[in-house]
User: What shape does this take?
Amino acid sequence: MMMALVAAVLLGGCATSAERAAHKAEQVKKVAAALNERQYKIAIARMYPMKGPSKTVSYGYSVEVKNDSLFSYLPYFGRAYNVPYGGGKGLNFSAPIESYQEGMGKNGKRHIEIKLTNEEDTYLYTLEVFDNGSSSVSVMSRQREQISYSGDMEFDR
Assistant: This one.
């Protein structure tokens, strides 16, 4: 009786391990396909201002790439050097991508640099995307201090 119980537990553990491996492989494929097609969205969970502590952000903030455009909906905390009266758009805008460079890093990580300009500023978005969809985003601009974010790729269900 005890042997049957141990066998059942071990077989159940193997099935869960196999399911996890299959899920991970599927996630890796989704991430690679989205990056290759330049159709992806990174849902932001945390922000890291240059000064002060990191902050958890509410649901809904994201960076999205669709073909040749970037859609930025990000909160900003930090020093602004020269911005329009009232603060301007901040990091909430969409703009055509001027330059998109991608390279492979260690551990299946992709390094992406996106340069763009809108009517207020020039930006460099640096994305680090791991094969499981975990991501970090750094935003540099001429008129504001650099700020970083972390989050995960979002896929249509």
Q: What stands out?
A: The mean pLDDT is 85. The first strand starts at residue 39 and ends at 49.
